[in-house]
């Protein structure tokens, strides 16, 4: 039973306040267990896909979603291997215990560090290699910390490392990941080593990069907003595990430890990036599946057994569980109201964006902020009515889900087209013009904030320069070394171009070829 912490030796014993109830007897409650598994799966899948962080970063051209996919599936593959190996060992121990008095031989140890990984463990190593290829060492460091901490807690570190065939597993990861890095280093040299391993990995952890600093509580806010509205139920979903009862967890069957493993997954990523000096919301993308698992297991228990039963068999535990549900539901309603108000007032919060100077005006004129505010306001009212009715808490999840789907259909989808029109359409248009007007051998340069999408739109090599004087010096060097043509196509925002014209260029050294949105396409020769 993945759904709970009940069962023999599990967490759902008598007097548990937040854990699943004990597993029912096979005769009377077996259909409920099957139902619980399906409820967990459907709710978990919905929560993983439908939350603000996933929706936003799934539509941004960065590698965080791919890292989350590789890392998340790797961790789930590990747990499947861990749980299934535990079930096979339980069956084997029963057979050995029946014959032990006759043979007087100890149980065999079929694994060693040099065992070749099989099944889900093999899939785990392959996915870890893909995570390393996606974003470097972090793809193996974070899963290693999560799994290591989890195994130490349940007292199975050495045993599971033997089961995993960790030596061969690491060899598989290295064999899949290292060749690509070797080829890239050979092609780009020390510059790649310094930027990728030094700047994008080590420096981001030890110092502030690109002014992305934040206070220690930053990620509490990110989880609250980024996993809204489901974040309302994270505290009670975590408390239900009673993770402080280590002895109970160490004696529980492996297959009942999914919630505990998800907690270590959640805490591992949260803690790692809280310690890191550079902080960005996208760093918590790989945490969202763990949060979804925690909340979905809690909801599936509620749907299967009821709010009173999940608190344990005594009245005190049942009362605490029901109170926790009501408090979480109340916070859910408040959060929905805050979200609705924030969406309604959002045009006032949009600051100046040099890439889309009229963005606030466009959002205000679109009416999307009003639609979004109304949707979340209706959701808050509906949630209040369901919580007020006896047993109405069963509809809280549905209210949140329907409200979020409506928000996606009527606000996020139109807003994505609006954002594309304001920010990306000018880049697409000017990139297409650049391909049409370029001279043979002419370089394509972008000055200012780097937009990697320009390289995709134009299908050309783009030289990016953050400093104006460096870009002009590069163009001067082109005139000296490649006199045919002695110019470069430059994509630059209008405000910056006015400063460059005034300080670094003469009137006969540039020609404006096209403009779109906040950008201009210019031919500069020195």
TrEMBL record:
Compositional bias per record (Gly residues), positions renumbered to this chain: 1-15
Compartments (UniProt record): Cell membrane
Annotated transmembrane regions: 38-58, 65-83, 120-153, 165-187, 216-238, 258-277, 283-300, 321-346, 366-388, 395-419
Gene Ontology CC annotation, any one: plasma membrane
Keywords: Cell membrane, Glycosyltransferase, Membrane, Transferase, Transmembrane, Transmembrane helix
Region (Disordered): 1-31
UniProt-recorded name of the protein: Glycosyltransferase
Native species: Limnofasciculus baicalensis BBK-W-15
């Amino acid at each position: 039973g993945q759904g709970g912490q009940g069962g023999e030796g599990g967490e759902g014993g008598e007097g548990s306040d937040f854990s699943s109830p004990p597993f029912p007897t096979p005769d009377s409650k077996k259909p409920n267990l099957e139902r619980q598994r399906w409820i967990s799966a459907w709710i978990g899948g919905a929560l993983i896909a439908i939350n603000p962080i996933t929706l936003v970063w799934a539509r941004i051209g960065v590698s965080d979603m791919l890292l989350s996919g590789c890392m998340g599936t790797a961790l789930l593959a590990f747990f499947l291997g861990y749980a299934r190996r535990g079930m096979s060992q339980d069956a084997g121990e029963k057979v050995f215990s029946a014959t032990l008095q006759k043979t007087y031989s100890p149980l065999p140890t079929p694994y060693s560090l040099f065992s070749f990984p099989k099944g889900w463990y093999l899939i785990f190593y392959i996915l870890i290699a893909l995570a390393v290829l996606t974003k470097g060492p972090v793809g193996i460091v974070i899963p290693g910390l999560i799994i290591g901490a989890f195994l130490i807690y349940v007292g199975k570190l050495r045993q599971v490392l033997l089961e995993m065939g960790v030596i061969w597993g690491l060899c598989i990861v290295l064999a899949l990941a290292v060749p690509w890095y070797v080829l890239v280093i050979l092609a780009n040299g020390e510059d790649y080593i310094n930027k990728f391993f030094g700047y994008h990995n080590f420096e981001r952890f030890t110092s502030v990069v690109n002014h992305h600093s934040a206070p220690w509580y930053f990620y509490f806010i990110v989880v609250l907003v980024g996993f809204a509205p489901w974040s309302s139920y994270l505290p009670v979903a975590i408390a239900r595990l009673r993770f402080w009862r280590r002895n109970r967890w160490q004696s529980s069957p492996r297959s009942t430890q999914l919630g505990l493993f998800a907690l270590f997954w959640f805490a591992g990523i949260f803690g790692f990036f809280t310690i890191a000096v550079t902080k960005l919301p996208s760093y918590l993308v790989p945490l969202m599946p763990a949060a979804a698992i925690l909340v979905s297991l809690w909801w599936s228990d509620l749907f299967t057994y009821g709010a009173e039963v999940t608190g344990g068999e005594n009245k005190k535990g049942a009362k605490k569980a029901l109170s926790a549900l009501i408090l979480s539901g109340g916070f859910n309603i408040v959060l929905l109201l805050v979200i609705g108000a924030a969406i309604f007032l959002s045009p006032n919060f949009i600051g100046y964006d040099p890439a889309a100077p009229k963005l606030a005006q466009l959002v205000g004129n679109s009416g999307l902020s009003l639609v979004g505010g109304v949707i979340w306001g209706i959701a808050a009212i509906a949630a209040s009515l369901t919580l007020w009715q006896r047993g109405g808490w069963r509809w809280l999840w549905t209210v949140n889900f329907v409200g979020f789907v409506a928000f996606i259909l009527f606000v996020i989808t139109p807003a994505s087209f609006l954002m594309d029109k304001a920010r990306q359409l000018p880049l697409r248009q000017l990139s297409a013009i650049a391909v049409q007007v370029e001279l043979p051998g002419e370089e394509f340069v972008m000055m200012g904030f780097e937009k990697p999408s320009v390289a995709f739109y134009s299908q050309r090599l783009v030289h990016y320069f953050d400093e104006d004087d460096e870009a002009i010096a590069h163009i001067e060097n082109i005139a000296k070394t490649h006199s045919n043509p002695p110019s470069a196509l430059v994509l630059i925002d209008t405000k910056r171009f006015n400063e460059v014209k005034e300080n670094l260029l003469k009137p006969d050294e540039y020609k404006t070829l096209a403009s779109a949105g906040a950008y201009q396409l210019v031919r500069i020769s020195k």
